[in-house]
Amino acid sequence: SSFQHLSCGMKFLITAFVVIAICVHAATCALRLPQFLTENMVLQRNTLNPIWGWTTPLAEVAVAFDGKAYSSHADASGSWSVQLDVGQADGRAHSLAITSDGNKILFQNIAVGDVYFCSGQSNM
Fold this sequence. Notes:
Radius of gyration: 21 Å
Strand order of the largest sheet: 1-7-6-3-4
Distance between the termini: 73 Å
Number of helices: 1
Number of strands: 7
Structural class: alpha+beta
Helix content: 10-25%
């Protein structure tokens, strides 16, 4: 084999290149979401809620929220998004499942209600 005739340094460089290429490919193919999408989150009632993330470029993405199915296709960079219609606040725990390219992420105990952002000084 011609690989055996290469110097030790050249073998190391080729091996390092192959390992890096495999890691980069694996990192770009995984289904990923923004960090603030988590279990126990609250989605705003009576409005469309954007859900987005990244997956394998051009892959199909399936999103399920309380029996409603949504779908999207990733663009050439792997970005995708859907708009969830979550309806009225109802006091129940909901689940959100996102599937793409053989990967699945499941969030449970999601509430639907009002979301408030508050800021100010420490004496408020």
